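Good morning C.,

I know you're traveling, so I'll keep this short. The sequence:
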Amino acid sequence: MSHSLEEIKQPIAQELEVFENKLRESMRSNVALLDTIMHYIVQRKGKQVRPMFVFLTAKLCGGINEATYTAASLVELLHTATLVHDDVVDESYQRRGFFSVNALWKNKIAVLVGDYLLSKGLLISVEQGQYQLLRILSNAVKDMSEGELMQIEKARRLDIKEEIYYDIIRQKTASLISSACACGAASISNDPAIADKAKLMGEKIGMAFQIKDDLFDYGEKEIGKPRGIDIKERKMTLPLIYTLNKVDSSTRKKLINIVKNQNDKAEKVNEVIRIVHESGGMEYATAVMMRFRNEAVDILNEFPDSSAKSSLQKLIDFTINRSS
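The tokens, ready to paste straight into the viewer:
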């Protein structure tokens, strides 16, 4: 059963509205150009999924306070910084259907904007003495960078083992959701064991989230991103890793050759997609995604029942049932 984000937001709807204003305020600048760009970024915000993880986890652990707003601002500032930089690196001119910052203002400005957002996050946490939150989020940014670089390093060889793939997505994608949950918990509780538990729950959610993304690449529908984009970018995803391990050596050679040398030919990319489907790569990746989802829910169930807990349960399912 799928739930709407509006329904999931219910227990924290007011807090999210207050947060929107606080975030807008924290992104203000006296430099007109920068202020224009910040305004553009704020107007085109996404679904607010990461701040939702911060607020719901804080509420799950006892309530929401001023530090929770700081935590959510940090998550958004650092996440936005990495997205702005990613668009430069990927030479991407679209972000959620809108022009990316680098498309409108060129690379140099986009890189500086990303740096500005990172420094804003650092300043807010230092000004408010929130060193624990700063530590959690700085670690997440470090992990994300390492994960990206590990993926680039391994993509050249295309012989990624499943364990390495999990290491990459744990750092590259899951670290942001895990840090959002950890920050939410740390903003309200002084018990490091609770923050660690929330962090592990977030990590499991993040792993499931990324595998869902992988599945889109081989999906039937043209949503989120066009089919085969990971193949074109030579990204090793779980359905393909499983397939390469399962097929005979001549098929394996053929698949590797397509991904390496013919990934710009639509009919070749479609052949990879077909073989992945036929080899059970989709079913396998879906089963792994569900395993991570169930592990996240098991951790969530260790917390007492509340409206925040049931919303988090729905949010976990939203991340794996979403259509984009």
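Safe travels,
E.
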